[in-house]
Amino acid sequence: MMTYRSLGRTGLQVGEIGMGCEGFIGKTSEQVKKMVDIMEEYGVNCIDLYSPNPDMRSHLGQAMRGRRDKFVLQGHLCAVWKDGQYKRTRELGEIKEGFADLLKRLETDHVEIGMIHYVDSMSDWDVVINGDVARYARELKAQGVIGCIGLSSHNP
User: Fold this and answer.
1) At what angle do helices 54-63 and 29-42 cross, to 10 degrees?
2) Is there a contact between 115 and 150 (Cβ–Cβ < 8 Å)?
3) Does the pLDDT at position 137 exceed 90?
4) Which candidate, 89, 154, 141, 91, places its Cα nearest to that of 112?
5) pLDDT, tens only, 86-135
6) 3-state secondary structure of 138
7) Cα–Cα distance for residue pair 72/95, rounded to 1 Å
8) pTM attached to this predicted model
9) Could you give the CA distance from residue 4 to residue 7 in angstroms, rounded to a whole number?
């Protein structure tokens, strides 16, 4: 039986066990569907989508068809797919394109959490919070495209 907890002040209830999207990379759509079936069976409802890998996103979108509302999606802003690989960016055009791709491939019009990806220094924090990234995140939140704004860091 999964135990659920409130995620900060978001009002979201997430299981104590979540799924990181790296587990979906390199898997077929059938394998991803089976993993999502197991997640649903055991009450794992939170999926962190840092990876912009297009195949992973498409397979996951297909696997969630008809049950999207059972999952809390944490979609990252600033993690994009460029030249066949992951790239961290602060360039607004790339961010918008990457986030639109995330929504399209996941076959959804929203994510519960819009995670500003990998803010790893005070200078990066200043660029993010005082620039286009935070403004864009707040626009998405105002439009209901993301429910909450989050931030990830490797160097707190």
Assistant:
1) 50
2) yes
3) yes
4) 141
5) 999 999 999 999 999 999 999 999 999 999 999 999 999 999 999 999 99
6) helix
7) 21
8) 0.94
9) 9
